[in-house]
Amino acid sequence: xxxxxxLRYLPVVLLLAVLASILFSCANMSRPxxxxxxxTPPVFVKSNPLPDSRNFTxxxxxxxxxxxxxxxxxxxxxxxSPPQINMPKxxxxxxxxxxxxxxxxxxxxxxxxxxxNSIVDNNERNPxxxxxxxxSTGESRDSLQISGILLNAADLEPITGMLVGVYTNLDDTxxxxxxxxxxxxxxxLGHFTIRNLKPGNYRIVALxxxxxxxxxxxxxxxxAFGDSTLSPYAVPQQxxxxxxxxxxxxxxxxxxxxxxxxxxxxxxxxxxxxxxxxYLDSNTRKERRKxxxxxxxxxxxxxxxxxxxxxxxxxWYVLEKNHTNDTLYYWIKDSLVxxxxxxxxxxxxxxxxxxxxxxxxxxxxxxxxxxPKEKSKKSKKRAKNDSLPEVVPTVFAKMDVSISGxxxxxxxxxxxxxxxxxxxxxxxxxxxxxxDTVWNxxxxxxxxITQDTLSIRRYLLKHKWxxxxxxxxxxxxxxxxxxxxxxxxxxxxxxxxxxxxEYSNLYFAISGVSDSAIVVLLNSSDKPVMxxxxxxxxxxxxYVKPGTxxxxxxxxxxxxxxxxxxxxxxxxxxxxxxxxxxxxxxRAYWNVEQEWNIYNTAIDKQKPLAIKKNKPKxxxxxxxxxxxxxxxxxxxxxxxxxxxxPQNYGGAPTLxxxxxxINNF
Length: 665
Fold this sequence. Notes:
This protein is mostly beta strands. The chain has four domains: 44-236, Sandwich (Immunoglobulin-like), CATH 2.60.40; 289-368, no CATH class; 399-488, Immunoglobulin-like; 504-615, Sandwich (Immunoglobulin-like), CATH 2.60.40. 8% of the residues lie in helices and 39% in strands. It has six helices and 44 strands. The strands form 13 sheets. It has a five-stranded mixed sheet, with no helix packed on it. Strands 38, 39, 41, 42 and 43 form a five-stranded antiparallel sheet that branches. A four-stranded antiparallel sheet has the order 1-2-6-5, with no helix packed on it. Strand 38 (517-522) and strand 39 form a beta hairpin. It is globular, with a radius of gyration of 36 Å. The N and C termini lie far apart (86 Å).
């Protein structure tokens, strides 16, 4: 027989459980949820005037959105075309953007206000990308447009916020004398679109406008220019869309007509003509015997220096300079001169004048030496007995030898002196090689010691080092005497050479160029590590330290073994640059060979993302419950299409006719 006596307590137990649950929930109160995160940008609602209005002659506009908005850096991001001399007033007020133009409106002109990504919502700051607004002061509205990408010529970095403009005046001097007629700015990935153009022929240029006059009148500004004229045109297209009644039933198929605008794959390579203003940036006398002069820009000659308050011979100094003549050290020979605390000299040099031209300038410079305060170094022993004779230590000429415990197989030994030297006795240097346990002296013909062409105080000892070899370098006392009569002390140091197992070798089999090009091996910061010329379609790197590398190639058009920038007056584009589109993982004791066709990958897709500084933000979107990976991929593809650069496109030649494809619309 079942026991039903306990059932009478069940309602009480249930009641207590419910009360406990209520009390627990009240004691653990949390902030109410604000709902799902807002991921959508502001949506255009209405405007005064209406978009693409005709015969609008007022200077005030108002654009309204569906939520409260802000404008991010309007003076930098909002571009008005034709360009405005006086800065317009652009303000966000609640859900509205108010624009007040300060320049007088031109008759029969189409105006474009390109907001770029400056309009953001107030809460999440979701940007409204690519929003632009246009109106016309005449009966018709110009509607053609051209598009492309702007890259830095030297390293293929996309350039953000640089002005891109056009001229109907096809004279070469227009860029330097007249403001651009219609402009836009390159976006975060270097893309640009110039809207509302008339039919006709144009020249296209780009400018980092430092003085905001929309013309290239400052030689220090970055520029880009197309080699030939452009003629914008449109091709009618049709877009097919489908309306569903539910997730599986098609209700209507509609055909939407639109225009596709060309050219849409313009490639502009930005550069600086390397004509910075030249002036004397600093003049100091940190050391009694040395005068230092630093110029703001390189030059092909050195100044003429004349003494003013002291008598000196014609060769009263030794000049130490770098290869660009902008860092100059004058080492004073005569002690009667360098012991004068204040030296006055007249210096004649070339500097940039108000017309941005180099002209001779006469300068008077006062060079003052202030000796540091000397600290007392009296020893405790001398303090007890001042009658002891003072011991003066021997002062030697300082010599720094770049020898580490293990030296690279292909590197010379660098010997650097603190002051310019007067004489060097090469026979006083001795190089030994250890064989078994015996140090064997190498003959003078087995190695060389020569002055470095880039520094008068540095010498290079070169020898064909044996991998895993053991060596010793010795120098006799007085092997070197500096210009002040000090000689070097004895020197002795042992070192070994790294083994071949510690290196990797790399060879590029290059298609597209067989010679007259140089390949530069880069580290993970896009900085040069070493370079090699292209010979017979290949470039070879030996004794490379293991690690991750990248590679850049430039066409050495003038065969001077260095990268050269462009020149607008000469209509000279900068030398072409290409990137190997993948990273290179080099391991110890590996021989790596890679094939590289410099034209296989579109130029705007060549630089590996890992070393690209200006790249898309890696913000992972929050997926909705019904959003699958396939839909997300479609969204990504549509981004490239809308911005003008679908993926996997080989492309067409650029303006100059060179086979350097970019991704097109």
